[in-house]
Design a protein that fits this description.
Helix 3 runs antiparallel to helix 4. The chain is elongated, with a radius of gyration of 47 Å. The protein contains 5 helices and 20 strands. The strands form 2 sheets. The protein has a 6-stranded antiparallel barrel with strand order 2-9-13-12-11-14. A 4-stranded antiparallel sheet has the order 6-5-3-8. By secondary structure, it is α+β, with helices and mostly antiparallel strands. It has 3 domains: 194 residues, Efflux pump adaptor protein, beta barrel domain (Elongation Factor Tu (Ef-tu), domain 3, Beta Barrel), CATH 2.40.30; 48 residues, OB fold (Dihydrolipoamide Acetyltransferase, E2P) (Beta Barrel); 76 residues, Helix Hairpins, CATH 1.10.287.470.
């Protein structure tokens, strides 16, 4: 038994030596591999980013201003003569037409004044007729020396006085007739009439402070907004100093935005800008006119108006996330050059519009601006573009409609 153990140990050692030799041979073969392949494996890969290919175009510069709606026309119905209301001839809240009868005031007193004025006119006309006949006879008699010249002159003067009395009587009759007509209260404009402040049997006067009712024309409708005089001055200065900017055209289109963020379906037009500044607020009033066929807008509503202040010529829109600020506060962006390497550009930015900056200087059409992955790259790094968009290719890159 001891002899058998001594014979097996050399065999085990021989097998171990053969295995170690095989392993060493494998290592030598691996060491003879191509060194360029190892370098390729160890070389850093290009960073994948998203970019935006920009395009220069004219961009409207918009501004949102607070304002209120007001009726296109408004007429307070007031009595022009005093008396007792006999009837109200309209339905509150309905649409009335110009000239439609709204109220009847007791006309009896005014009818008596008309009758009296007619009688006075007839009396004056009869007196004038008599004096005219007398003057005509005196004209013949004075030629025959049958009456004195003084009598004839007095007859002519009497005709003049009686003529004036007739004219006065006609005016009195006309005034009485006007007052009688005023007992029928009519609508001065077409529109929707509100509630009545009086009922049948109420006593009204010509000089009362309270209107009987109010008529308002709601289609179209005005929207009055206010803007700081300082902002208007700033815009004018920018237009004067920036050769690439242009003022907004006359009758510019205006959008309405409600409190809930929704937009009014119809666009309006800017009518005018007030020529004076409110001394108490320092604001200037701008008025826009909107169609209102469904009468969705009512006078007194609070709204926001988005209007075009100016137009930036050949400007570029870039998402705000693609622009950063350096320690001096200058705007910068990372741009991919023709070699797919990252370059840093200093920019001159303008107004922000819908999460985008207007770039006035520093970029040109065709430049590729990196919009994502900015934390993973540095200037001079090589990148690959995972997604390349073009400004204006989707709704998010369009400037808002004016």
């Amino acid at each position: 038994m001891p002899k058998l153990r001594i014979q097996r140990r050399p065999a085990l050692w021989s097998a171990g030596l053969l295995l170690m030799g095989a392993l060493l041979t494998g290592c030598n073969e691996g060491g003879d591999a191509d060194p360029s392949s190892a370098q390729a494996q160890s070389a850093p890969r290009a960073t994948e980013v998203e970019a935006l290919t920009v395009t220069a175009k004219d961009i409207p510069i918009t501004n949102e201003l607070a304002g209120r709606t007001s009726a296109y026309q408004s007429s307070e119905v007031r009595p022009q003569v005093g008396g007792v209301i006999q009837s109200r001839d309209f339905t509150e809240g309905s649409v009335v037409e110009e000239g439609q009868v709204l109220y009847h005031i007791d006309p009896r007193t005014y009818q008596a004044d008309v009758d009296s004025a007619k009688a006075s006119l007839e009396r004056a006309q009869a007196t004038l007729h008599t004096s005219q006949l007398q003057a005509k006879r005196y004209k013949t008699l004075v030629a025959r020396k049958m009456v004195s010249q003084q009598d004839y002159d007095d007859a002519i003067a009497t005709v003049g006085e009686d003529t004036a009395d007739v004219t006065s009587a006609k005016a009195a009759l006309k005034s009485a007739q006007i007052n009688l007509d005023y007992t029928t209260v009519k609508a001065a404009i077409s529109g929707r009439i509100g509630k009545s402040s009086v009922t049948k049997g109420a006593l009204v006067t010509a000089s009362q402070d309270t209107a009987l009712a109010t008529i308002q024309q709601l289609d179209p409708i005005y929207v009055d907004v206010t803007q700081s005089a300082n902002d208007i001055l700033r815009i004018k200065r920018e237009l004067a100093s920036n050769g690439k900017a242009a003022s907004a055209p006359d009758m510019a289109m205006v959008e309405l935005i409600f409190d809930d963020g929704s937009r009014y379906e119809h666009q309006g037009k800017l009518q005018f800008t007030d020529v004076s500044v409110d001394q108490s607020t320092g604001m200037v009033t701008l008025r826009a006119l909107f169609p209102n066929p469904d009468e969705l807008l009512l006078p007194g509503m609070f709204v926001k108006a988005r209007l075009v202040e100016s137009v930036a010529r050949n400007a570029i829109l870039v998402p705000q996330k693609a622009i950063s600020r350096d320690s001096d506060g200058k705007a910068t962006a990372l741009v991919i050059n023709d070699e797919n390497k990252v370059e840093r550009r200093e920019l001159v930015t303008g107004q922000a519009i819908d999460h985008q900056w207007i770039v006035l200087q520093g970029l040109k059409t065709g430049d590729r601006v990196i919009t994502s992955g900015l934390q993973k790259i540095q200037e001079g790094a090589t990148v690959t573009v995972a997604e390349d968009e073009t400004t204006g290719s989707n709704g998010g890159n369009e400037s808002p409609a004016a």
